[in-house]
Amino acid sequence: MSEQTVTAAPSRTVAVVNAFVAEHGDPTRAVIQYMGNAGVRLTLVGSDGALGDVVVADVATAEAVCAAVDGVQVSEWDRETIAATVIGPEHRRRMAGPRARR
Prior knowledge:
This protein has helices at residues 11-24, 59-68, 79-84, 89-96, and strands at 28-34, 40-45, 51-56, 72-75. By secondary structure, the chain is of the alpha+beta class. The protein has one domain. The protein has a four-stranded mixed β-sheet, covered by helices on one side. The longest helix is centred in the first third of the chain and has 14 residues, at 11-24. The chain is globular, with a radius of gyration of 15 Å.
């Protein structure tokens, strides 16, 4: 028989995701992305198109966070999710790095 372990969602991470949903609307899409030894990035896309992210230890923790927060839908980087994002000029400058800030 195999034992199933239940992964608890870290309360601090749940609070951050709850605050994001409260600020940027329900439903919020969550894309779970494995980053290797660094952990798992949970990228959030609010209903207003805002982007946010949190990093957790593993996929099970990311799934537990999504399950713990009302208004979060686990998604993929599909056409609908990409179309829902709104990337403003400040975010584009930050992504471009120091060369764009000259």
